[in-house]
């Protein structure tokens, strides 16, 4: 029995168990219901509007972007928040005390984030299928594109979240920082209104981050007729793969050493110190 | 083991034959300008139960964390199972059990589910005579959690939660077990159950145990040997009995004669009481001979160190 492989298998089991716990937790159900409802309401009001200059439903253009955004936010926030919380409550230290425990922990985290993201995307997608009849006519190739764009979106954001979660030491800072980051990115992502309406320097900024490309890729998958409304009138598929791929590679290169360094420094008294500080904040 | 412990002195001699499991030489730890550990030395032999005592902030937790491999020391030599903990591999890790002061993790997991899952990490690391992990049912029975097997960890009481921590610490049937204040929050019954568990681990599994506690009574009951850490050094090392005799051979004798109460300190309580009866015979009442408790000894040693 190869111990590392064994730990990977345990990580898969762990991810599945935690996903089950998460999906039935009241907090998670509440969060999913509220965010999904908000997005479905937006689409409901857009259902009769069309993309200016075309006959494409505005909702059909918004939905793919929203799905991409969900994937990115989940990838980033779950990784950041999860790490920050689990460093404080001792989960990480527990993993450190087990042989090959960190391998199991990381694999488990990746499975958990991926599966919960998938669930949230599915919930909104089902709502979209009901509201936007044209969505049901998406060809298999479109669904396939959606899957690889989502996966690439996850690999671009999850390691990044892990890096931020390792560098920031308390959950509040972590949550605040990532909300700021994702909120800012969403504003210039081209998901809620076309990027071409923004100032040039904002457009350039948006092109650097994964969120714009994630939205673009999702639109190319689920609303292929709208290419004319995009910048340059094209889906820029290769560039999408390039930028998301670059973020993924950077994240996957950076995350392991930073995670290792963070885990190496983790100890019971550090955990206690953070907890005392947290109690002081409350008290 | 139990018998040897009762013989006090001889257990230290018998222990010499066992190989050293933990070796600490001139261990130093510095946090910024503060040197918390200033040259700690001690050795723990296979199968020993050691209690590490000391005032808050003396560096007990730091010492344990260095031995666990969770913290990198500033100086000195440390060997646990022959390996430097700072560079311990996964095979070494599998032989170490850790119970930290406080956890709040895995709240949404159920007790059996968690023990089962964490135990499986140890499956590739069974040694001769040490099958890993301990079967989950056996483990839950050992710590008294059988009836809570299906409960969510977050719903356990403080004492139950602590028992779960101990269970997780021993799920891999460790050769060496580190316990940092294991009985904090235990009621008297849970405490006694825990003491039985420690004796079983030590006697049946030959587990070497290093624990910290603030409960001196507990230290006296559990430990073959007591280490007192103060001012960054080990200031006392020996069985409770031996430490008591080193500090003071005196016992306090209390008695009454015709309703009048007396107290006398002596290093020969037996001889003194014999004389007392020879002198007063049947008039003696309320006789009580009290040797220095570990608490007296501990306080005396700390006072001496502070001076």
Structure commentary:
- The complex is a heterodimer of chains A (283) and B (307).
- With 283 residues, chain A is mainly alpha-helical.
- Chain A has one domain (3-282).
- Chain A contains eleven helices and no strands.
- Chain A is elongated and about 60 Å long.
- Chain B has 307 residues and is of the alpha/beta class.
- Chain B has three domains: 1-92 and 175-185 and 204-248, 3-Layer(aba) Sandwich (Rossmann fold); 96-173, no CATH class; 249-291.
- Chain B is 37% helix and 27% strand.
- Chain B has helices at residues 2-6, 9-15, 60-68, 90-93, 111-120, 136-143, 158-170, 188-204, 216-222, 240-247, 269-280, 294-306; strands at residues 20-31, 34-45, 49-53, 75-80, 96-99, 176-180, 208-212, 225-230, 233-238, 251-257, 260-266, 284-291.
- In chain B, the strands form three sheets. In chain B, strands 5-6-7-3-8-9 form a six-stranded mixed β-sheet, sandwiched between helices.
- In chain B, helix 5 (111-120) crosses helix 6, helix 6 crosses helix 7 (158-170) and helix 10 packs across helix 12.
- Chain B is globular and about 70 Å long.
- Mean pLDDT of chain B is 88; it is low at 1-15.
- Chains A and B meet through helix 1, helix 4 and helix 11 of A and helix 3, helix 4 and helix 5 of B.
SSE map:
The complex is a heterodimer of chains A (283) and B (307).
Chain A: H1 3-24, H2 26-46, H3 58-89, H4 91-97, H5 101-131, H6 140-167, H7 171-187, H8 200-208, H9 210-222, H10 237-265, H11 268-282
Chain B: H1 2-6, H2 9-15, E1 20-31, E2 34-45, E3 49-53, H3 60-68, E4 75-80, H4 90-93, E5 96-99, H5 111-120, H6 136-143, H7 158-170, E6 176-180, H8 188-204, E7 208-212, H9 216-222, E8 225-230, E9 233-238, H10 240-247, E10 251-257, E11 260-266, H11 269-280, E12 284-291, H12 294-306
Parallel strand pairs in B: 3-7, 3-8, 5-6, 6-7
Antiparallel strand pairs in B: 1-2, 1-4, 8-9, 10-11, 10-12
Helix pairs in contact in B: 5-6, 6-7, 10-12
């Amino acid at each position: 029995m190869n111990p590392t492989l064994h730990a990977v298998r345990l990580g898969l089991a762990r991810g599945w168990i935690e996903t089950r716990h998460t999906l039935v937790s009241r907090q998670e159900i509440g969060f999913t219901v509220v965010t999904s409802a908000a997005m479905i309401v937006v689409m409901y009001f857009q259902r009769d509007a069309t993309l200016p200059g075309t006959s494409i439903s505005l909702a059909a253009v918004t939905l793919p972007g929203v799905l991409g955004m969900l994937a990115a936010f989940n990838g980033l926030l779950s990784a950041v928040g999860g790490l920050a919380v689990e460093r404080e409550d001792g989960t990480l230290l527990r993993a450190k005390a087990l042989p090959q425990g960190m391998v199991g922990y990381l694999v488990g985290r990746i499975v958990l984030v991926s599966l919960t993201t998938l669930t949230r995307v599915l919930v909104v997608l089902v709502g979209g299928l009901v509201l936007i009849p044209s969505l049901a006519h998406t060809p298999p190739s479109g669904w396939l594109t959606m899957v690889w764009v989502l996966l690439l979106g996850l690999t671009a954001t999850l390691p990044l979240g892990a890096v931020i979660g390792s560098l920031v030491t308390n959950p509040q800072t972590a949550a605040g920082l990532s909300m700021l980051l994702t909120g800012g990115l969403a504003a210039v992502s081209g998901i809620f209104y076309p990027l071409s309406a923004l100032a040039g320097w904002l457009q350039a900024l948006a092109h650097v981050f994964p969120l714009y490309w994630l939205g673009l890729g999702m639109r190319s998958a689920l609303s292929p007729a709208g290419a004319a409304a995009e910048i340059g009138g094209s889906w820029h598929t290769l560039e999408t793969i390039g930028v998301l791929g670059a973020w993924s590679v950077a994240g996957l290169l950076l995350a392991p050493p930073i995670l290792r360094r963070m885990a190496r420094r983790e100890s019971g008294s550090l955990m206690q110190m953070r907890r005392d500080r947290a109690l002081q904040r409350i008290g | 083991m139990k018998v040897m412990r009762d013989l006090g002195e001889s257990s230290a001699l018998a222990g010499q034959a066992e190989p050293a499991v933990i070796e600490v030489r001139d261990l130093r730890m510095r946090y910024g300008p503060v040197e918390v550990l200033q040259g700690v030395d001690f050795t723990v032999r296979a199968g020993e139960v050691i209690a590490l005592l000391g005032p808050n902030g003396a560096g007990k937790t730091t010492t344990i964390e260095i031995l666990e491999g969770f913290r990198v020391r500033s100086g000195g030599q440390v060997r646990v199972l022959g390996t430097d903990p700072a560079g311990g591999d996964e095979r070494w890790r599998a032989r170490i059990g850790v119970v930290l002061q406080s956890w709040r993790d895995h709240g949404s997991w159920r007790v059996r589910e968690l023990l089962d899952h964490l135990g499986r990490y140890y499956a590739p690391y069974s040694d001769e005579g040490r099958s890993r992990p301990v079967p989950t049912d056996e483990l839950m029975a050992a710590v008294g959690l059988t009836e809570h097997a299906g409960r969510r960890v977050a719903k356990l009481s403080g004492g139950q939660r602590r028992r779960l921590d101990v269970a997780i610490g021993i799920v891999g049937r460790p050769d060496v077990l580190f316990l940092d204040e294991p009985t904090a929050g235990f009621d008297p019954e849970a405490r006694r159950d825990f003491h039985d568990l420690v004796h079983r681990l030590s006697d049946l599994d030959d587990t070497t145990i290093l624990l910290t506690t603030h409960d001196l009574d507990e230290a006296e009951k559990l430990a073959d040997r007591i280490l007192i850490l103060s001012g960054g050094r080990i200031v006392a090392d020996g069985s409770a009995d031996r430490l008591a005799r080193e500090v003071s051979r005196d016992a306090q004798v209390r008695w009454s004669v015709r309703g009048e109460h007396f107290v006398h300190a002596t290093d020969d309580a037996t001889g003194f009481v014999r004389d007392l009866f020879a002198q007063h015979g049947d008039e003696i009442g309320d006789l009580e001979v009290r040797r220095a408790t570990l608490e007296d000894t501990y306080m005396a040693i700390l006072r001496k160190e502070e001076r």
